[in-house]
Every structure is written in C-alpha cells, then in structure tokens.
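As a representative case, we now present a protein record of this kind.
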Amino acid sequence: MSNNRNLAPKGFSSLVPGVWRASTVVFDDMDKFARRKENLFDGYTYGTTGTPTSRELEARIAVLEGGGHCVVVPSGQAALCLSVLSFVKAGDHVLIADCAYGPLKNFARDWLQGLGVDCTFYPPSIGAGIVDLFTPRTRLVTMESPGSVTMEMQDVPAIAAAARQAGAISLVDNTWATPLGFKPLDHGVDLVVEAASKQFGGHSDVLLGSITTRDRTLYERLRRSQSVLGLPVSPDDCFLVLRGLETLAVRVQAQGRAAEKVAAFLAGQAEVAEVFYPPLPGARGHDLWKRDFQASGCVMSFALADSVDERRVAAFVNALDTFAIGASWGSVHSLAGYYPAAEQASRTHAVTQSAVVRLSIGLEGEDALLADLRQAFAASRNALP
C-alpha cells in the first residue's frame, strides 16, 4: 500500500482555497504522533477538529469579527449550544434574552434546566438594569440583537459591561447584522456567534455556525468541547462559506438597501399594525441601531392589524410568488415565514400579541419584491372577511 501524502504540488497556486478532506491526519514519526494532542489548538490532530480548509475559514471569520480565534461547527444552533455547554455546569445560572432564537430557548428549558442549570429569560430592553438579575452563580449571559422574529434591539455594551463586572461571560448572536454591520467584540462582548448558514453562506445550500473570541483561554475551552462532543464541519461546507464570504459585502449592501424600501412600504399598509425593523426611522430600537450599527440587515417582521383574521393572513402568504415560504433567511432568495398570535402570547416578554409575518429580503430587486407584496395584500383584501 502506498504511503503517498495528499500534498499540493509545488508551483501550483489558485485564487480558490483548497478543499482538504480527512478523517485521519498522518504524522512523520512516532514521537509526533504521541504528541499530536499538542496540535489541538493551532495545528491538526484528527478530522474532527479541522483540516486546512476549516482552519482557513476560521481565520477569515476571526478577521471579519475583529477577533483572534474562531471555531466552526455544523450549524448556528450548534454554535450556541456548544458555547453554553463549554462554560456552564450544574448549579450555575444563565441569563438568556427572551428574544433569542427559539431552539436556544428550548435547549435551555428542556435540557439545561434538566442538567441542573438555572435559566432566567430576561426582557431584551433591560439594558444596564440587567445587573439586578446577576447572582453569584451567574456564569453566562446571552444576547441576540436584533432578536429573532420581532427584532428587539439590546444595549449590548451596557449588558456586556454588567456581565464583565459580575465575572460572567457574555455572548451575542450577531447573525442579523454580520460583522459588517456590528462587531460585538469591539463593544466588550466575550463570544460572538454567527449562523453562517445565513448571510455568510448566502445561498440556502449550507449549514454551519461559528464562535469567535479574543480570549485565548475561552477559545481553548471551545476547541476542547468541539473535540469531545464530536462536532466536525465538512470541508466542502467550509468551502461553500468561504466562497460566500467573497460576496458578503456586496450582498449585505444590496439586500439592506432593498430591505429599507420594503420596510417603508409595509409601514404604509392598513393591514400592518407595526413594522419590526430597527433601521426604519420610528421603529422600536432605531436609536440603538443608529448608535451602534453600520449596516441594515435583510430581515424584518410585521405585526398584523387586529382586523386581519386568519383567512386573510393565509391569503396574503399563499399569494406570495417572488417570496418563497420557508424558514431561515439571509439568502439571495427572498423568504416569508408566519408566526401565529398564540406563539407571541406564550412569550414572557412579548412586544406584540398579534400574528407576525417575517420577511427575508434577497436579490430579486426591490421592484419585483414590492410588486409581489402589493398583489399579496390585494389577495388578502379580496379574501372572505
């Protein structure tokens, strides 16, 4: 059997990063094999903890975030769960924003609390007042700004400062803004998570998440956790995200411009009670967005007026053509999702009791998107009362 190594040929160079697939990493001699675990943080030990392809992606994300260290994992939810599991244990206390990604809240309720971790879901608007919720057992505070579905803005610098003073780790899910719109690490945050499935990838064809930090100790704990829990990322998926990053700035700019136009249009519709989009003047959280953010995200939601019953909502959503109906967001393809009133009413700190429609703005062009929304609203008005 040949012992030939899979090495790039001398003299070959490309604008495109290589895709290095490996479960097994081989070593030059017995001593290097015996000491392979020394490579866990900065080298290669086994496919679980990375190949040159995943390490290249981690390096590029770290630069974008303004951090020194990054770990990529199979999804944004995996990044959130790994971040929590790496730093909390039975008897600890965790603060989680009520506007957080739903599966993270489910993980806290259904798993963390069962493992003896006390979880408090705090109002996103609490700001510096969060200091009153810290206890001697508080180990971690999570934020998402803007929040999932109803886009609540959080005072990230104030909450991060309170966490640091209390000796707790702070985490922000920054997927909506991307590091082009907001850099949490510059505002005192310890960990920043991105669902790279969304705008980093940008094409609805990959699942991946990232965790970035400036703290070497936190990074080493995350890398150990990734190894122990067995959370490798396919190098092919890493390649897709590396390719997506090449056009990230262009997409964020174009989709943000179109999203601003769509939000302004929605604000003028009789069926819309409120538009949740912080870049929109007058919207909830606009002042915080204007203070801290440098770009407009591509996701927004709107609450339906009380006069709009379920049949009219269904007529609106089902009439959409350019907007596909589906979960996720951040792709070049526009999407629409629906969240019933009962789902909002079940939240502890809800900002609306009405049904909510969420839109992700793609690259089809604002004229096509506005035309689609106009005909969908017309279909809603023509539906049975």
The chain has two domains: 30-246, 248-381. The longest helix spans residues 248-267. The mean pLDDT is 94. DSSP finds 13 helices and twelve strands in the chain.
